[in-house]
C-alpha cells in the first residue's frame, strides 16, 4: 500500500463495430410490444393473435409456497377505564 499515490483511472474505450438492429417498445394503450425480433417474442410468449394482458415472465406456480402468519390481536391499554 503506497501513501500519497493515486491509482490511475482506467480508460474504457467506446464500443467498436456497434450495430443498432432493433428498436423495441411497448404501447400501454394496446398492451402490445412492437419491434421485437421473433426469437424475443417467443421468449416472452407473444403471438400475433394474442390480445389482452401479457403473461408474467415467471410462472407463479413455481414459487416456493410460504405459510401465512396467524393474525394476532394487539390490545393497547385498558378499554374498561376511560382516559382522563
Automatic annotation (TrEMBL):
Residues 12-25 form the CRIB domain. Pfam families: PBD. Gene3D superfamilies: CRIB domain (3.90.810.10). It is an enzyme of class 2 (transferase). Its EC number is 2.7.11.1. Keywords: ATP-binding, Kinase, Nucleotide-binding, Serine/threonine-protein kinase, Transferase. GO terms for molecular function: ATP binding; protein serine/threonine kinase activity. It comes from the Eukaryota. Signal peptide: none annotated. This is non-specific serine/threonine protein kinase. The lineage of its organism: Eukaryota, Metazoa, Ecdysozoa, Nematoda, Chromadorea.
Amino acid at each position: 500500500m503506497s501513501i500519497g499515490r493515486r491509482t490511475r483511472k482506467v480508460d474504457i474505450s467506446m464500443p467498436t463495430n456497434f450495430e443498432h438492429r432493433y428498436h423495441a417498445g411497448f404501447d400501454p394503450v394496446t398492451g402490445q410490444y412492437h419491434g421485437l425480433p421473433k426469437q424475443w417474442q417467443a421468449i416472452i410468449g407473444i403471438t400475433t393473435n394474442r390480445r389482452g394482458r401479457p403473461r408474467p415472465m415467471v410462472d407463479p406456480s413455481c414459487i416456493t409456497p410460504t405459510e401465512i402468519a396467524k393474525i394476532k390481536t394487539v390490545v393497547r391499554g385498558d378499554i374498561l377505564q376511560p382516559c382522563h
